[in-house]
Specification:
about 350 residues; alpha+beta; 6-stranded mixed sheet; Creatine Amidinohydrolase; 4-stranded mixed sheet
């Protein structure tokens, strides 16, 4: 905040509030921060949860009029002309108008301050990395279980449901990180296919992208498997994507920029004759949200630093035929990187 010249910061995004305070209730809190004080404003119905927030936060609970109380507190503590940051990516026009009106007596300068919180959250603490490692364990175990199941004649949706049940009932995952992607045959050529009633049959590829949540932190992993022996094109496509991921992983480390990592993957894909068939970035940050800073994509020169946790997920998608994506999570370390998902990326043949 000092670097950005802010006198105070208004935090409204529930995920950011959870990160800063430990309070996990959506849309029922406002956080106010200055260099000298930090306040947490919520409603009286959440008094028990508010008592459990992190040390250093002063809970203020109201029966109603949460925003009115928050604005009054800022007016009491700040001087006219104060420079106040807010989360411009999360605040609607209506809410911005309410904030500006509530602070009109201060004639403040309201400044978008998204980057400050994003960069803070991007670097994970050892405790956060431990939670993300824990979130990866049930995911890998579920994929290993899936490899032993007879997938032929199941629908995509049935496989997705089976994965969710396994994660929840056998591994205690509190939630899915996102809607599980199960894409068979031509559907695998769509990077973000929604599982349907299409029946899985021998002779095709199935792309499975799944994730779960442990104590608020998310995991994310993709594998593409063959149903019966794959044909030559499918096997070669998988080999290309696997090489692309390995080349990207080899470039990972502190001081490397996201576009370099992306370029390492696309160089392999392009050389194999599939230029333009990777329609998304090769990686994204992950944590309390599925997609958060930093990002590894073309034209993104963001520098990776120790503590960043990102996915590495190259893919090649051939419309009307099939697609392959392989995805793992890694944490950037002082010496390079460490994989959080360690399951082999070799092509698995299922029944």
């Amino acid at each position: 905040m000092r670097d950005a010249g802010l006198d105070a910061l208004i935090v409204t995004d529930p995920t950011a509030i959870h990160y800063l305070t430990g309070f996990s209730r959506d849309a029922f809190a406002i956080v106010l921060v200055s260099a000298e004080w930090a306040c947490f404003v919520s409603v009286e119905g959440f008094s028990a949860e508010a008592e459990e927030i992190a040390a250093g936060w002063a809970p203020v609970l109201v029966g109603q009029g949460m925003w009115g109380r928050a604005m009054a507190m800022l007016q009491e503590r700040l001087s006219p002309g104060a420079r106040i940051g807010f989360q411009s990516g999360q605040v609607t026009h209506a809410l911005f108008t309410q904030i500006a009106g509530g602070l009109s007596a201060l004639t403040p300068e309201l400044v978008g301050a998204d980057a400050e919180l994003d960069s803070l959250r991007a670097v994970k603490s050892p405790a956060e990395i431990a939670l993300m490692r824990a979130a990866a364990v049930p995911l890998e175990a579920t994929f290993e279980w899936l490899y032993g199941q007879r997938l032929s004649q199941m629908t995509e949706r049935q496989v997705a449901w089976a994965i969710e049940r396994r994660l929840r009932e056998h591994h205690g995952a509190e939630a899915l990180a996102f809607e599980t992607v199960v894409a068979f045959g031509p559907h695998s050529a769509s990077a973000h296919h929604t599982a349907s009633d299409a029946v899985i049959e021998p002779g095709g590829l199935v792309m499975v992208d799944a994730g779960c949540v442990v104590d608020g932190y998310r995991s994310d992993m993709t594998r593409t498997v063959a149903i019966g022996p794959p044909d030559a094109e499918a096997a070669e496509l998988h080999a290309v994507v696997r090489r692309a991921q390995q080349h990207a992983l080899q470039r990972l480390g502190p001081g490397v920029t996201g576009d370099v990592v992306h370029g390492a993957a696309t160089a392999v894909i392009d050389a194999a004759g599939h230029a333009g068939r990777l329609p998304h970035g090769v990686g994204h940050g992950i944590g309390l949200e599925l997609h958060e800073a930093p990002f590894c994509d073309e034209g993104v020169p963001e520098t990776l630093v120790a503590g960043h946790v990102i996915t590495v997920e190259p893919g090649v998608y051939l419309p009307g035929r099939h697609g392959v994506r392989i995805e793992d999570e890694v944490v950037i370390t002082g010496a390079g990187h460490e994989r959080l998902t360690t399951l082999s990326s070799e092509l698995v043949v299922c029944e």
